[in-house]
Amino acid sequence: MALRRVLGLGRALGCRSCCSKHPLPPDFVEALRAVVGGPNVSTATVVREQHGHDESMHTCAPPDAVVWPQAVGQVQELAALCYRHRVPMVPFGTGTGLEGGVNAVQGGVCSDLSRMDAITELSLKDVSVLVEPAFPDEVMAGACSRFSGLELPAATTLLLELHGSRHGLAKQQRQAGTDASPGKEGFVVGLLSSPPCPTAPMVGHVGDSNFHCLTFNPQHPAAAQHVHAFSQCLGRRALAAGGTCTGEHGVGLGKRALLLEELGREGLDTLRRIKAALDPHNLMNPGKVL
Question: Do 143 and 99 lie in a common domain?
Answer without folding.
Answer: no
